[in-house]
C-alpha cells in the first residue's frame, strides 16, 4: 500500500505516500482517519507526498467527499495540516485551489518535511499544547 501512517505521538501523525495512489488506498486512509477523528483527540498532521507517483482521479473525488463530510470534526480537532509537496508546479496548483476552497483547519503547503515540521511545532505552541518530541527537533 503506498500510503503509510506513522504515529509519532498520540497527537502527531505523518501520512507518507510512496508510489501510485488508487481509490482503494484512499478508502483505507479515510477509514484510519475517521477512526482517529472519532477518538476526539487533538491532532497535528503532515502529509508527505515526496514519493508519490500517479494519482487516480477517483482519489481526488473521495478526498473532496471526505473533507466535506468530516470537515467540522477536522476543524475542531486538527491543530494543523502540513502538506509536503516538492514539485513547485504542484505546490502552486494546490495553493491556488486552496485560495478558493478553504480547508476547515489551519494548513500550509511546503516543499520540504523540515519546514512543515517546524510550522506544525509552532501550531502546537500557538494552541498551548505540548509539542511532540518528533517535532521538537525542528524548532
Give a verbal description of the structure.
The protein has five helices and five strands. With 139 residues, the chain is an alpha/beta fold. A five-stranded mixed sheet has the order 1-2-3-4-5, with helices on both faces. The protein is globular, with a radius of gyration of 14 Å. The model has no long low-confidence stretch (mean pLDDT 89).
Question: How are the elements arranged and paired?
Answer:
Blueprint: E1 3-9, E2 12-21, H1 23-39, E3 43-55, H2 57-77, E4 78-84, H3 88-100, E5 107-110, H4 113-126, H5 133-136
Parallel strand pairs: 2-3, 3-4, 4-5
Antiparallel strand pairs: 1-2
Helix pairs in contact: 1-2
Please give a handful of descriptors for the protein shown.
139 residues; alpha/beta; 5-stranded mixed sheet; 5 helices; 5 strands; 50% helix
